[in-house]
Amino acid sequence: MEAVFEGWTSTVGKPTMDSDVRMSTRNVDVHYGDKQAIYGVDLDIGKNEVLAMIGPSGCGKSTFLRTLNRMNDTIDICRITGDIILDGDNIYDKHMDVVNLRARVGMVFQKPNPFPKSIYDNVAYGPKIHGLVTRRAELDEVVETALRKASIWDEVKDRLDQPATGLSGGQQQRLCIARTIAVSPEVILMDEPCSALDPIATARIEELIAELSENYTIAIVTHSMQQAARVSHRTAYFHLGRLIEVGKTDKIFTAPEHKLTEDYITGRFG
Ligand SMILES: Nc1ncnc2c1ncn2[C@@H]1O[C@H](COP(=O)(O)OP(=O)(O)O)[C@@H](O)[C@H]1O
Ligand SMILES: [Mg+2]
Prior knowledge:
Layout: E1 12-13, E2 21-32, E3 35-46, E4 50-54, H1 61-67, E5 78-86, E6 89-90, H2 98-104, E7 105-108, H3 119-129, H4 136-149, H5 153-156, H6 169-181, E8 187-191, H7 199-212, E9 217-221, H8 225-231, E10 234-239, E11 242-248, H9 249-254, H10 259-265
Parallel strand pairs: 1-11, 4-9, 4-10, 7-8, 8-9
Antiparallel strand pairs: 2-3, 2-5, 5-6, 10-11
Adenosine-5'-diphosphate binds at residues 32, 37, 55, 57-63, 75.
């Protein structure tokens, strides 16, 4: 173990919650081959909570986020142990339907990744394959509702049949959020969702995150401490695969308990 972790025992602050828990991880380790990337993470994420995950590049934020909807399953050498519970279900249970899980725990990526299809079809795809609607009128309604919730409806309502790839980056990212919402997820994971966007598009996504948190649980990885401070209720600080500290966002940024957290937020490394 690295010298910096001599004497390190467990996460400081408040990683677990007494009530209103949406997702829980317990003793989660992740290995890539014989290299360990995540060490024994215990963390709860609350209903209607925005949880920000921050930490230096390579500390395991994306790896940990991807364990929450089994996105790491696609990486052959990746091995995950421990428990991850979503509303009472262990998501690594052998009976878990992974396609259904990824509808319940949707994901928005760093670079907007709309399908090379129309705006309408991007949003309609999920409800169709999951059999959530039977009639065209119902599908139209689901598409409109998702686009409205992602605050992009007014910009696209007159060109739903046009290719999604013709939208600006910020519009594409909101479309990807609409696509995620269209299948009624319980949790939305976002991995640096604004890092490819300009400041105005970023501000729109941040406003949207605040609106969405009324109905969804959101876990967002960000390299921007300002963004974490603006959008999240709780913040989790990772360092070299360990979850060092978790707490209310204003506390993490004003009165962190752990020296590593303090060093990071005051810009001593990153
Ligand atoms: N697909 C992969 N194969 C092997 N190692 C990986 C893979 N993805 C990430 N890692 C390693 O896991 C560690 C954590 O990476 P990552 O989760 O991407 O960190 P972050 O998102 O915080 O920058 C790093 O050491 C990285 O090199
Ligand atoms: Mg990452």
